[in-house]
Amino acid sequence: MEETGISREEILSILKNAKSADTRYERVLSSMCTYPHEIAVLAHTQFIEANMGDPGLFPGTYHLEKQVLKMFGSLLHHKNNPENCGYLTTGGTESNIQAIRSMVNGRRDIKNPNVVMPESAHFSFDKVADLSGVEIRKASLDKTLKVDIDSVRSLINENTIGLVGIAGTTEFGQVDPIEELSEIALEKGLFLHVDAAFGGFVLPFMGVRYRYDFAVEGVTSMTIDPHKMGLSTIPSGGLMFRRSEYLDDLEIHTPYLSISKQYSLTGTRSGAAVASTYAVMRHLGKEGYRRVVGQCMEQTQNIVTGAGEMGIGTVIDPVMNVLALRVPNADDVRKRLLDEFGWHVSITRNPRALRLVVMPHIAGDIVELFLNDLEKLI
Q1: pTM across the whole model
Q2: Quick one: CA torsion of 320, 171, 86, 155, rounded to 10 degrees?
């Protein structure tokens, strides 16, 4: 850091150069994030200094957070005062860590706890294990890449404190059989967390009705991320519990703030993300999100059709706007798509396939360009 600062113009020039080196989303088919909605950006800038870690100083922003939680409740069929049953997080990783933390704190009688979840669970749960010492037991998947219920049952023992199901897996966009996991959770008195970080802003706006949320009796908590398909700014996540006592299990005394207790993992929390999420959800409404999801699903089907014409199938029929193409030599194709054409795609682990996420920035002309470039390599 220099002794004397530099001019505004120099700073802006440096920032412009840095920004120009960043990847624009138009050729990104690997990310579950996208450009935020313009009204989300506007709201974010207006609340940039608001800290939800000390909400007594920012009652207006805190009120917006409560309204967002009510809207989450409407999407996720939460009927029991949802505004008192969660908070806005930095994203799915924090939400998943906190859900497992609530499981652990609610079962302090278990000395060596374990949690059973699918092999397809997000890597954030491995961070939970590293941080807390909780044993993560991973159940195998069935032929449709949903968690295998028999495998789940086989992993449960006297130290099991909870189960995890995924509504929109990161690699394949698959939805686990949450109702069957719920039956096990109710039978054995276990906490059931549903990671709907991606699917939470997709599944409610599709024509197909999936039972994966609080409408299912055994679901205890849920992750939902507005900064993915919700079109909010980064970082915007959400964690909700069925009842407030599960949130109370995260309570920490805060003697020198304007509030007496805190539930979040992070101390300082972005009020700007709260305002951004509130603004875009109120602005788009369910009708607007149905339109966004519908467009993404249309382009997903266009890729499936175009790839099919090249003789390329999918690992599973896409459940949402995530698909995996059975491309020969997928790792080599991925590298060449990037090196020769600038396309950012990713690879699934098992089976190896070309993974694509069709976010709102992927328009019809982009799909056509991608398919043309893919055909050159195939």
Answers
A1: 0.95
A2: 120
